[in-house]
Amino acid sequence: MKKSLMALGSLLMLGGAGYAQKVAFEEYNLDNGLHVILHQDKSAPVVVTSVMYHVGSKDENPERTGFAHFFEHLLFEGTENIGRGEWFKIVSSNGGNNNANTTDDRTYYYEVFPSNNTELGLWMESERMLHPVINQIGVDTQNEVVKEEKRLRYDNQPYGALFAEVKKNMFTVHPYRWTTIGSMDHLDAATLEEFRAFNKKFYIPNNAVLVVAGDIDIDQTKKWVEKYYANIPKGTPITHQKFEEAPITQTIKAKYEDPNIQLPMIVAAYRTPAMTTREARVLDLVSSILSDGKSSRMYKRIVDEEKKAMQIGAFNYSEEDYGVYFVYGIPMPGFTPQDVLAAADEEIVKLQTELISDRELEKLKNQMESTYVNANASVEGIADNLSTYYLLYGDTNLINTEINIYNSITKEEIREAAKKYLKPGQRLVLDYVPAQDTEQN
């Protein structure tokens, strides 16, 4: 599922730049529309087989939210040729591991096997695509699993409702307004036929990308891809509906009481451009300047010097259609959430009115290079990135070239992006506070 708030807050906290080697790959389409990407890496006898489907929570019926994430669980139940409960046994008994995750925009499945089991991984993912068994016992079982996940990660997790509260206030027409895990009431009300219809619509080869990365023989892998995937029927082409939000023209104020916390948090959230835009990348640099590490502007002043906050952060959370820029802080005793937000705002104003120094720009470029190298440091990371760049960005080779975009960003662009998007009049301010004890004495 989605990363936690604190993990997102440290998204760019990587040290030391390194040399990035070009990621070589080959890509092509099968006649049924399945996009195939092959990457050979002989450095270790490991192969990743992954399939990313272009379906996320934004593709759901507003009365049936949670379907995309539910399928992340449901499609491990079994297939016509893999018995119920056997999926994980097959993977582990053959020296592998597997997982899946869902976002608002896509769903991703993968297996990691020793390279002598490359064919097994390809067969298993073809089974998931062609022969899933979707029956009532599987739906009922996974319904309970998802409910338990919601209790652990959202309902009983400190600050677990933060994303949900931000999303529902930031978006009024776009499906980003609901959470990826969705509504348990919607899942309870859904019929077996609705689940089967969702599978038939979205889990089709022409809505997916298959990546095989690692210690592979390219020619042999192509033969296996043809053997297991070429005969899967093409589905009805999908048109992903577009939703346009009206601009935020005055501050949205909201409050949420969380029974799982003792310390209040202040959150300012701004709507930002899609992940594919240059400005989204510029805003990544803005967040790095403001809160990446103990030498960052917000941390150094608000936490270290003035001791107004015990925690402060800023990050740009970009998605396929829109992004949300978060600024958040937890005040120290003796200070209010508003004190923390006021201090954060002062640092944003400085960024909007003054160019950063040459030294800061060089530091940013080093951080981006380090982030880039780290993202492609494992065959699992490369497989994920190849899938993402093809499916959501429309350019697989960004795995090699996106760093050039970051390196070309100027100090002036950083100032203008902060000025354009981080305005007080076009944001949500959320008071995220401990729940009040309503018991009468």
Automatic annotation (TrEMBL):
Alphabetical list of Gene3D superfamilies matching this protein: Metalloenzyme, LuxS/M16 peptidase-like
Domain Peptidase M16 C-terminal: from-to ranges: 190-368
Listed Pfam families: Peptidase_M16, Peptidase_M16_C
Phosphoprotein found in the keyword field: no
Presence of the UniProt keyword ATP-binding in the record: no
The organism's place on the tree of life at top rank: Bacteria
Record-stated family: Belongs to the peptidase M16 family.
The protein's name: Pitrilysin family protein
